[in-house]
Specification:
The complex is a heterodimer. Chain A is an alpha/beta fold. Chain A folds into two domains: 5-29 and 257-289, Helix Hairpins; 30-253, Pyruvate Kinase, Chain: A, domain 1, CATH 3.40.1380. Chain A has helices spanning 5-42, 44-60, 92-110, 122-130, 148-163, 221-302; strands at 76-82, 114-120, 137-139, 173-181, 187-195, 216-218. In chain A, β1, α3 and β2 form a beta-alpha-beta unit. The longest helix of chain A has 82 residues, at 221-302. Chain A is elongated, with a radius of gyration of 30 Å. In chain B, 29% of the residues lie in helices and 41% in strands. By secondary structure, chain B is an alpha+beta fold. Chain B has two domains: 4-85, F0F1 ATP synthase delta/epsilon subunit, N-terminal (ATP Synthase, domain 1, Sandwich), CATH 2.60.15; 89-134. Chain B is globular, with a radius of gyration of 15 Å. In chain B, strands 1, 2, 3, 4, 5, 6, 7, 8 and 9 form a nine-stranded mixed beta sheet that branches. The longest helix of chain B has 23 residues, at 112-134. Classes of the chains: A alpha/beta, B alpha+beta. Chain A binds chain B through residues 39, 42-43, 45-46, 49-50, 52-53, 56-57, 148, 151-153, 156, 207, 209-210, 213-219, 223-224, 227-228, 231, 234-235, 238, and chain B through 7, 9-14, 27-29, 32, 39-44, 66-68, 70, 72-73, 77, 79, 81-82, 112-113.
Amino acid sequence: MPASLRELRQRRKSVAATKKITRAMELIASSRIIRAQQVAARALPYTRELNRAVSAVANKSRLDHPLTRDVQDPKRVAVLFITSDRGMNGAYSSNVLKLVAAFRQRAEEQEGREIVRYVIGRKGIGYLKYRNIPIHAHWEGFSDAPTYDRAVEIANKLLEDFLTPTEDGGVDEIWAVYTRMESMLTQTARVRRLLPLEVVEGVQEPDPEHPDALYLFEPDPDEVLNALLPLYIRSRVWFYLLQSAASQLASQQRAMKSATDNAQQLIERLTREANQARQAEITQEISEIVGGASALADLTENE
Amino acid sequence: MAVLRVEVVSADGIAWEGDALSVIARTVEGDLGVLPDHEPFLAVLVPCAAEVLTADGHREVVAVDGGFISVADNRVSVLSPFAKIAREIDLDAAEHELAAAERRLNAGDLDEETRQHYLRAQAQVRAAHLAQSAK
């Protein structure tokens, strides 16, 4: 016996209400993702100029700087990971957390290193708190609209801890796990080493037309490098935050779109079932009436 | 005559770009003027109000908070995390921030961050004043 007509109608009503909500969230996410992408695009010239400057200095200086020096046999490894503040965005946060878990396993169990966690976003904080895993530092409240101030705040904390000797609670390496926005359809979680810097990798040619532009440095190359590298680190963190924010919104939009589609399907199915139930009720009533009438007819004939 | 192609870049985007006849900014070594055909160089800036004399004879003032200036091949880029063009600076807000940062400094908060805030606000107030006096 299918569910009663009243019950089916009630369920359809509640699914329709849910659909309205998910639809609204989908629209909000898709309008905000455009903004997030614009912000990310606007930050590009800054990164480009910084890269160019760093590679100009790299050509000139020995690049022997505390921030670029590799630590032999690192003991404490920091991992900064960026999750969302709120749910309703599909697997966005759990993809990051999965990658962090894999990273932790490799670093702790195979290489015997101690992991120090820096978390951005309430989902990540909640995940660790629930499992009683210590958190070294955390930030929250800006996962979908980061500002450069926040990036500076985070980067300064990372720099400070990196420059502290390991014995005094510093870290030897800093890795970042963020979600890269490949396109509206694909976002992939990635692990990147933030510190010590690998300047050689990914450095652009100084200037395609004048590869040998001999820069003068004021006051001198090392001082310039001293000033540049912290800016560079902050810009990396800023880049990670922006990419993650755009990915989060894209992921949310997709999750909400499939929720809306599912709700629509459910509504159609419930409508069909409700119609069937209604039809069945009518048929039953008719057969009851017909049955009753023929019983009455039989009765009068017998008299 | 050659002109300079100037780009003032902040972390949130390009604060100003255009052709210019000269650029004046303050580096750690002192004030510095850049004219066309300057040799390539890269200098570290201190928070200041940088001035750009545009190709059409205007003066643009930009508040920078550190960063650096690089010149090569008549392209000048001023890179500063919180660079802001003077006419977009809200003078009241900047003065308010300056006062707040000053209070914190006087209260003994000698944090690097507070100092940065103070210097940034100071550069913005100066740039805004400079831009007003030019009118």
